[in-house]
Amino acid sequence: QRSAPTLAAYDDRAAEAEEAEVSRRVALVMAASAAAAATTTIATPFPAGAIDIDPKKIADLERENMGKANTNGAPEKHIPQVKVDTEGNIEVSVPHVMDPEKPHYIMLMWLKDVGSRSKDVVVVKAFPATDPSPPTLKVRAPKGANLKPLLYCNLHGLWEGEEFTV
């Protein structure tokens, strides 16, 4: 259980400890996605994909960061940008560094089906820090799908883009 922030949260050491805490929380997600590093997973109603990243792990990540999305870092470098063509091809990207030295990178990018009651995660892509910038997710979706792009930065947490319809 996380306690309320204190003055120590503004101390450099406390900030480093908090970053380490975030890293531990996402370690499980990264372990599950390590083998899938640059592979896109697609669930119905989308075409079949290659490798599984458990959507429950993504749900846990969202739950742990509830109320904190889009609050830590520069929005112009973190909010997912979406392009959709007339064939239903979607490209989600963000102008973010992929720096394995710091490290500072986008760990995960995913789409949620916001048109359904369950708000299921329909596609997830994991990125190693060594991937080129900008991190990009490409997928094809059926016309009429209502989706929302999200991503997770290893330093700045959860970021949500605007909902869109294919």
Automatic annotation (TrEMBL):
It holds the Pfam family Desulfoferrodox. Transmembrane segments: none annotated. Keywords: Electron transport, Iron, Metal-binding, Transport. Coiled coil: none annotated. Residues 73-161 form the Desulfoferrodoxin ferrous iron-binding domain. One of its GO terms (molecular function) is iron ion binding. SUPFAM superfamilies: Superoxide reductase-like (SSF49367). Belongs to the desulfoferrodoxin family. This is Desulfoferrodoxin ferrous iron-binding domain-containing protein. It comes from Trieres chinensis (Marine centric diatom). The lineage of its organism: Eukaryota, Sar, Stramenopiles, Ochrophyta, Bacillariophyta.
